[in-house]
Amino acid sequence: MDTFVLAATSFIISLSLMITGKKDKLQASFSGFCGAVFISQIAIFLRSYFNFGFLLNIEYLGILAIAPFSLQFFRNLTRNKSFLSSRPIIVFTSISITGAVAIFTPMSQWAYFYTVILYYSFFSLGLCYIALTWHVNKLSPGTEKKRLGYLLFACPIALIIGNINQLNYWGFDFPVITGIMLSVLLYFILLIIAYPQLRELHDFFARWLVIFVNTLAGAAILYLAFLFSGRSPLSFAGLLMASFLIVISFSPIKMILKKIFSYFYPESKDVFTSLYEFDEKLEKEKTLMLAEMAPVFAHEIRNPLGSIKGAAQYLKSEASTEEQKELFNVIVEGTDRLNNVVSQFLDYARPYKLNLRVQNINAIIQKAVSIIAANRLAEKITIVQELDKNLPEVNVDEQQFVQVIINIALNAIESMPRGGNLTFRTSNIENSAGGTISITIRDTGIGISKKEIKDIFKPFFTTKERGVGLGLAICQKIIKEHGGYIRVKSIPTQGTVFVIKLKKAEDN
């Protein structure tokens, strides 16, 4: 059962990476590595039930394939910056091909043939671990060093726990869990390469906690099913293994079925949509409807507003008293304010056509700062720029992003009526997916309460007396259109921090 779990896990991971169809060398090489593990382990599992000679040859082929795939994967993981160049990969590939040919010769009957190829694969994995250690030690402190450091820590832990049954020689009675621990390690590596947004150790633990809870729930359901059917349930370890395989195989199976159904039933697009996803789909449809209705809505409001303003201005010129002129001024100001609300509503509702160009975000921030500094509201404000000179370029619409920076900065300035510091900071975040840049806008203002901060990006939510409540909603929408995200943290009376993350350009 332990061997089967490792075989099934490696097959599911390899299949899920292939189904996604991403042209990613890192994920493709890891898919190949998991495929080699699956071939070797399924052959071992089947040999325990069937005495077929060809199964041993398949096991040999799987073990030999592990070496070149593992080297290629770890080379891609370190982005070709370790001492694992293409030369050792070619050497190991040649050795594996030679070994594969030797399987079908009398050499395979040699008593130590299996031991040699097994230690050959272990040697390649050890070499990968040394290369990763060397690479991590050379990295400067940052997200990439931290993420790969977790992997350096996880590998020996999985190896030690997986071989805990070796203590049975001293009278203990531990079960064989090598395959289970290696399965956990493979899934952990999958999280490292497939989810670059997971940066902290608690992020990985949270992901594992979800899988663990689902596994326990599945095991409980299986136990009750056996119990009510009158059959003797499997052991607790067996139920956990079965439930774990069901949990991690759900997504790949769903993707396969979705591709099959889309081919035979192209109109049945909602077959695999859950009830929660239906809500999300409805929200998207509402957004599209809003985008279609907004121009008509704006046109129908602006026409009478223009008439009202024109009539008020004419009557003001004909007014005989100051009191009458003041009343007409109120009408004109009101129409201008309503027109401004309609303009912001249009900005929020209509889809953006981004004019993306590869450029340095520091230059855009400096341009926005020059505009902000010219505003009379910024007279009491000290603007600080802590911009990373080695910041990689990003694909960005300059005009839209200047609007984002100005909107956030003006809100910050308004929160500091007695003056304060407005700090702009940029930094580079390295990770296995290619890296992101971080833009931080910090003020020392009055801050935002916990109750209000939950709704800060909602349309028409505002704490200002004459605010519309669309500025930050528009900022969030623009950033999402750029493929990034925005977060906010605030401490009342101490200040607020907005953090924007954007992916760096692929050609960097």
Q: What do these coordinates show?
A:
This protein folds into 4 domains: 2-197, Rhopdopsin 7-helix transmembrane proteins, CATH 1.20.1070; 200-267; 275-349, Helix Hairpins (Orthogonal Bundle); 357-503, 2-Layer Sandwich (Heat Shock Protein 90). The chain starts with a helix and ends in a 5-residue tail after the last strand. Helices cover 63% and strands 9% of the residues. The protein has helices at residues 2-20, 25-47, 53-77, 86-103, 113-138, 143-162, 178-194, 201-228, 236-264, 275-318, 322-349, 361-373, 398-414, 450-453, 471-481, and strands at 357-359, 381-386, 394-396, 420-429, 436-443, 485-491, 495-503. The strands form 2 sheets. Strands 2-4-5-7-6 form a 5-stranded mixed β-sheet, with helices on one face. α2 packs antiparallel against α3, α5 runs antiparallel to α6 (143-162) and α8 (201-228) packs across α9 (236-264). It is an alpha+beta fold. Mean pLDDT is 80; it is low at 275-280. The chain is built from 15 helices and 7 strands. The chain is elongated, with a radius of gyration of 31 Å.
